[in-house]
Amino acid sequence: MALEVNDDNFDEIVIKSDKPVVVDFWAEWCGPCRMVSPIMEEISDEYSGKALVVKCDVDSSPGVSARYGIRNIPTILFFKNGKIADKQVGAVPKNTFVNKLKALI
Fold first, then answer.
1. What is the value of pTM for the model shown?
2. 17, 28, 62, 73: most buried by Cβ count inside 10 Å?
């Protein structure tokens, strides 16, 4: 299951992670976000132990959203060693996310 991150715990969970991290920036009111959410849950389960999948609500975490320039959601950022390694904006098929994550593992 994907963890929730916010302005308070983002650095501790995402930046300091020793594994690749997939961050799903989303909002409750966003239709495409609701389409991506089950895909993120599947990837979280399938890559458990190899990568971390987290969700960040843009409405309740404006600091992190501003820091990474999130203007459109869903935006998925792929982190490796505390740095952004890849990015995907919008709802896309699962294999698109998986291929970006596999490149970081």
1. 0.97
2. 73
